[in-house]
Design brief:
The chain has helices spanning 37-44, 58-64, 103-126, 175-182, 241-256, 262-273, 323-345, 352-371, 374-380, 385-388, 409-418; strands spanning 9-15, 19-25, 135-138, 146-154, 159-172, 193-205, 212-222, 225-235, 275-276, 281-282, 286-293, 304-306, 312-314. The protein is of the alpha+beta class. Helix 3 runs parallel beside helix 7 (323-345) and helix 5 (241-256) packs antiparallel against helix 7 (323-345). The longest helix has 24 residues, at 103-126. Mean pLDDT is 74; it is low at 1-101 and 298-321.
């Protein structure tokens, strides 16, 4: 079985007449190839679908997807989230030739894979034994028009509430949505057929000393054009300069691999987007944010194929390591950019004063989401309200005219929020 790289998982296969086979796979969902005749009879005894040596290895994945996964990286847990073929997003649609997949199919595959791996790793790091739930829903009761997978972990030792959502939507643009997209430079008409896919993360920790993480990648396709968006940003309650420098440095390193000005542009866009005009302050210490991204040279992304390293390849063999590759690196970087900050701060002591300040800052977080966030507004126009509002903090506080004492840690945080810093 041919698999993609890098190899992140190791699986032990056991079955009748199979002996003992150990095969490294990438979440069991990206192995494309043909089975040799010597293996056809072996797997046919386990699955009636395996009748020809020309078939894709995907049915084999369906056989083994119910086995327990063990991840490498941030620790292990005795009760990781379910990976059964009935509920797991690993059991996705596939064809025998990856070159026949469209960009939106590649993107759908990517975000399902990342959602599953992120939920497993964060649940293990949380350490409470609580796992992410699995709520798969269909848009209008018909999966052809869209579906989503909402996964939430609540009341953990580390996370008070953590959400990792996937949404896949197909349909016709309403007048409101068409106007909103056209206002950003795209000439889109009402009634146009569109595809919208996204993976969005919002992690609200228990400790006021661990910042909230918001992160996402998304792809929108309409009228023969498609563009990407995404990013990652931190919202701390208390400023830690070293953490801010690490977070921004991490994302600068990724951006620099694609374009020397990419980090600066994405950082500026993040500071600009996550701003509350009514409060005259930014929501957090920023990170990166990009939207309507088609290419790094302002030309339209060509009709591309996906190679084994998740890179876009132009038909004819001209390799173009551009936007999709960048989006993959962003998605793969969500936890590595955040976990070291968690480990450093999760055991720091705090009391009622710090908790009250945390709830106050969460109020600002929710204000931005409800008043200014484009994604929330897009979703509220016919979207699934519970999945949209899952990003809200579990508890918030709005006390009248809260003003930190001069020279306090709380005042230091507000000062930075009013004037964004260049962290690196």
């Amino acid at each position: 079985i041919t698999t993609t790289k890098p190899l992140m998982w190791k699986y032990t296969l056991r079955g009748e007449n199979m002996g003992h086979l150990r095969a490294p796979l990438l979440l069991l969902s990206f192995g494309y190839g043909c089975l040799p005749p010597s293996r056809v009879s072996t797997f046919s005894s386990l699955s009636p679908h395996m009748v020809s040596s020309s078939q894709l290895a995907a049915p084999v994945m369906a056989i083994i997807v119910g086995k327990p996964l063990r991840t490498r990286g941030y620790g292990s847990s005795s009760s990781l989230c379910s990976t059964s073929s009935q509920n797991s997003p690993v059991a996705i649609r596939a064809s025998s030739n990856p070159s026949t997949h469209s960009t939106k199919t590649h993107f759908e595959t990517l975000i399902l894979k990342m959602q599953d791996s992120i939920c497993q790793e964060l649940a293990a790091l949380d350490g409470s034994g609580n796992n992410f739930g699995f709520d798969k829903w269909q848009r209008g009761g018909n999966e052809a028009t869209g579906y989503g997978i909402t996964r939430v972990l609540e009341d953990g030792d580390l996370m008070e509430k953590a959400a990792a959502n996937v949404s896949i939507l197909n349909g016709q643009l309403s007048q409101t949505r068409a106007k909103a997209i056209s206002a950003r430079g795209h000439n889109i008409e009402e009634g146009s057929q569109y595809f919208a896919g996204a993976l969005s993360l919002v992690f609200h920790p228990q400790s006021p000393h661990v910042p909230t993480l918001r992160a996402d990648v998304r792809y929108f396709e309409v009228g023969g054009s498609g563009w990407f968006g995404g990013g990652a940003d931190l919202t701390p309650c208390y400023l830690n300069v070293d953490d801010a420098r690490y977070f921004h440095g991490f994302w600068k390193d990724i951006c620099d691999k694609f374009h020397p000005a990419l980090y600066s542009n994405c950082k500026t866009a993040c500071d600009s987007y996550f701003y509350l005009p009514a409060r005259k302050e930014h929501r957090g210490i920023g990170g990166i944010f990009f939207d309507d991204l088609e290419s790094f040279d302002d030309t339209s992304l060509p009709d591309c194929l996906l190679d084994r390293d998740w890179r876009l390849t132009r038909k004819g063999g001209d390799c173009r390591v551009e936007v999709f590759d960048f989006v993959v690196k962003v998605a793969e970087g969500f936890l590595p950019s955040y976990v070291p900050i968690i480990r450093k701060n999760r055991t720091a002591e705090y009391g009622d004063k710090e908790r009250e300040w945390q709830l106050h800052r969460r109020g600002r977080y929710l204000e931005f989401n409800l008043l200014y966030d484009r994604g929330v507004k897009f979703g509220l126009d016919g979207g699934r309200i519970d999945s949209i509002m899952v990003s809200a903090p579990p508890l918030v506080s709005w006390k009248y005219n809260v003003t930190p004492k001069p020279n306090s840690l709380e005042a230091q945080m507000v000062e930075v929020l009013c004037t964004p810093c260049e962290w690196i």
